[in-house]
């Protein structure tokens, strides 16, 4: 059995990947969202030649070959494209072996606790607190993540005083028993991050995500040394060697690889194992309701150092609407893994028919 064809169905936001074998079996995956139509071009031009004709069950071998063969292009788009291949191959393998992906990984079918992840900085503290308390009632959430600072803001808040106002306002609204997490999105210098971190500790914040610009790992390590609130990060990082350096340097208390940014499940499992060996929990990044949250659900059900929550976006993103069925939903604060082989879902055919189509195949 070998890989016969690779198809992509892409929009600017999402690219679905379908791999077919020479015997007709198929698997569905997805590249990382955002500028996904560009990733589709990279996939067909640079990645597909290394995948066609290969044994589809040799997922680790295929992934490594793609990354190593394209060593002149070490970075985001190659890894995003490889992630589309990897996730389609896991779906294919599950269907061939009659198992869900989490079963292939040695996991168990169990509901996963979710935290409601806010993506907004344009919202007032009062409005944010109101909608989070409402979600506690309607969906049973007992954990949330909010945005502080400003994306690569270098100590400049979204507006003056917002961070200092939103943390206590939300904490009061959701109560002391709920978990409150914050994300600074690379917003601070070390000195300011430490100052803000001390404030976060007074409100029992569960983690302080990406306090400093993510390439400056020494800055983040400095912040971690000075604070008791756990430091989380890693979503942007796609080099396994860099991951090893960060873990060896004890840069963070919680690792957050993004399955689609990093290059798929196989590479994410390696990061999770490195972290596990160092006694560090792994809570993968999943900041939208495309298939990345589905992939993350299966991985969290399988790794021994899984963090306590699945990240679950609370935002209305039309570009993910009706993408696959059954859709994921939060009930009583938990998300169930879809029943079925592979990823356990079917991509909406109407969505596929509207997307830009391309195929690369063996002659």
Notable features of this structure?
single chain; 363 residues; alpha/beta; Enolase-like, domain 1; eight-stranded mixed sheet; 13 helices; 14 strands
Write the layout of secondary structure elements.
Elements: E1 3-10, E2 15-21, E3 26-30, H1 36-51, H2 59-69, H3 76-97, H4 101-104, E4 112-117, H5 125-139, E5 143-147, H6 162-174, E6 179-183, H7 190-202, E7 208-209, H8 217-226, E8 231-233, H9 240-248, E9 254-255, H10 259-262, H11 265-277, H12 291-300, E10 310-313, E11 324-325, E12 334-335, E13 346-347, H13 349-354, E14 356-361
Parallel strand pairs: 4-5, 4-10, 5-6, 6-7, 7-8, 8-9
Antiparallel strand pairs: 1-2, 1-14, 2-3, 4-12, 11-13
Helix pairs in contact: 1-2, 1-3, 2-3, 5-6, 7-8, 9-11
InterPro entries: Enolase-like_C_sf (IPR036849), Enolase-like_N (IPR029017), Enolase_C-like (IPR029065), Mandel_Rmase/mucon_lact_enz_CS (IPR018110), Mandelate_racemase_C (IPR013342), Mandelate_racemase_N_dom (IPR013341), RHMD-like (IPR046945)
GO molecular function: hydro-lyase activity; magnesium ion binding
Cofactor: Mg(2+)
């Amino acid at each position: 059995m070998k890989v016969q064809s690779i198809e992509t169905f892409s929009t600017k936001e999402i690219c679905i990947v379908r791999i077919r074998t020479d015997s007709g079996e198929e698997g569905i995956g997805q590249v990382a969202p955002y500028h996904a139509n560009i990733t589709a071009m990279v996939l067909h031009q640079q990645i597909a030649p290394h995948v066609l004709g290969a044994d589809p069950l040799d997922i680790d071998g295929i992934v490594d070959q793609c990354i190593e063969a394209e060593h002149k292009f070490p970075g985001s788009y190659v890894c995003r494209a490889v992630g589309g291949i990897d996730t389609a191959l896991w779906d294919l393998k599950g269907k061939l072996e009659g198992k869900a992906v989490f079963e292939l990984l040695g996991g168990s079918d169990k509901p996963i606790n979710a935290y409601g992840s806010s993506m907004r900085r344009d919202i007032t503290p009062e409005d944010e607190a109101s909608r989070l308390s409402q979600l506690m009632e309607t969906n049973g959430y007992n954990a949330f993540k909010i945005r502080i600072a400003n994306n690569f803001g270098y100590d400049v808040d979204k507006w003056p005083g917002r961070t200092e106002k939103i943390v206590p306002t939300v904490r009061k609204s959701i109560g002391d028993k709920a978990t409150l997490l914050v994300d600074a999105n690379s917003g601070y210098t070390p000195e300011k991050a430490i100052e803000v971190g001390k404030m976060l500790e007074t409100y029992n914040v569960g983690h302080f995500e990406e306090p400093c610009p993510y390439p400056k790992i020494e800055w983040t390590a400095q912040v971690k040394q000075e604070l008791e609130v756990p430091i989380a990060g890693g979503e942007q990082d796609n080099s396994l060697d860099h991951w090893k350096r960060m873990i060896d340097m004890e840069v963070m208390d919680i690792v957050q690889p993004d399955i689609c940014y990093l290059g798929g499940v196989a590479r994410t499992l390696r990061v999770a194992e490195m972290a596990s060996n160092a006694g560090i929990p792994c809570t993968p990044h999943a900041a939208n309701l495309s298939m990345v949250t589905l992939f993350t659900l299966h991985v969290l059900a399988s790794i021994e150092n899984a963090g306590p929550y699945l990240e679950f976006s609370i935002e209305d993103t039309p570009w993910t609407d009706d993408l696959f069925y059954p859709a994921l939903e939060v009930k009583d604060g938990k998300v169930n893994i879809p029943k079925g082989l592979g990823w356990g879902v079917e991509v909406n055919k109407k969505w596929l028919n509207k997307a830009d189509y391309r195929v690369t195949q063996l002659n």
